[in-house]
Predict the structure.
Amino acid sequence: MFKGIQTFGKYLILLGRVFSRPERLRVYFRQLIHEIESLGVNSSGIVILISLFIGAVITIQIKLNIQSPWMPPWVVGYTTREIMLLEFSSSIMCLILSGKVGSNIASEIGTMRVTQQIDALEIMGVNSACYLILPKMVALMLFMPILVTFSIFFGIIGAYCTCWFLGIMTASDLEMGLLHDFNAYFVLSSYIKSVFFAFIISTVSAYYGYNVEGGSLDVGKASTNSVVSCSVLILFSDLVLTKLLN
Amino acid sequence: MIEVKSLCKSFDNKEVLRGIDAIFEDGKTNLIIGQSGSGKTVFMKCIVGLFEPTTGELLYDNRNFLTMGKKEKIGLRREMGMIFQSAALFDSMSVLENVMFPLNMFSTETFIEREARAKFCLDRVNLSEAYSKYPGEISGGMQKRVAIARAISLNPKYLFCDEPNSGLDPKTSLIIDELIQDITHEYCMTTIINTHDMNSVMGIGENIIFLCDGLKEWEGDSTKVMSAESKKLNDFIFASDLFKKVKEAEQEEIRVRDALL
């Protein structure tokens, strides 16, 4: 318990340093563009691939296991859309990304710590926490809604693929479900959740990387711990945000 | 000039530095020597502000580093350059970008001027052919030279080198030592070098401080180090067979000369 409070305190102190005024905005902006490419654009492929398959699998599962003659034909499309919008594209996708992006951030910053690159920044008079973490955090928070959009779009494409290539139902039935009782607020709530999760992924994994002590083994441990912590925090905050946003 | 007064540093009740007093003068290569675990690195990290000393005073040209405000401290840090044991170059940047980094962060010059300054620093350390290479593509000696170029890019008043020769062959070590000494004299910097390389001690030791178990055991220069009467220092220096033989040869020479007279 005491260790938990201590860790949270250290995390807040680090955030305090992250949110201080950057030394040179031009350098930070260039770093931001680099991070958008490295953390955001480079994650698009995995997001598209997973969403495509999950969209298809959800459609097949609902069609084969839930739909019955007592239900209208649009149920499959409707349920697929709601699952993608409400949970998969925001929360589950962020859980998956906490593995890819979170471990990347923790190991990158951790390696910089053990190879004294962070000490070199400090000696130069650069606020290393701000220089290393702020661009990553802003980049991920800016790009996460775009990844969520990709996920929703390709999840639905995956659902259509089951109609076009597997023929489990007609595309017009699926479309009817997808358009049934559409609530645009769900998209907005997805975006809000994803931005919040992006903040958790970037700052928590950066915290673990920044506080690495030791060698390469400790960088690996920090990377694992960051993924575990991010996952738990995302699940917990998903519960809270879902209640607050509905 | 850097003055250290009664500097102590403890970690969890373990005293690593026990009241060290030292003066590091401008335009001189000041060496801190000692066995592994003697407190050299902790001492240097206290001086540069990476560790906060438990007690003591640290004066940079009469400016007390430990009591000054955050802004002043950041300002003073911009007057420092440091070469780390591992070179600590930024992997994602090319050699030229590494040297330009401090200039991009703090210089108000135009891009062309900053690039020219970075190229000048790289030329100064004889690395004009490696501008576009990445740290992973160059040798350890070249990495150290890039680190020197990066450290001097902002014309620092104080240069700190933490074991600049570690992992280098004797010839490359010599080149690095000479380079650091030349730069120190050229820009009249206060240079502090942490080392346990006896070749460096004999070659560039203008002021040498020997640390043992967190205490300053001996102070002098390279001309006096071989004849020092400190037992701990002698144990450290003559642990190497080469230096043992040099001392034996010197003693033999004196004995023969005395016999002839």
Remarks:
- The mean pLDDT of chain B is 87.
- The radius of gyration of chain B is 20 Å.
- Residues 2-79+156-260 of chain B form a domain with the Rossmann fold fold (CATH 3.40.50.300).
- Residues 241-260 of chain B form the longest helix (20 residues).
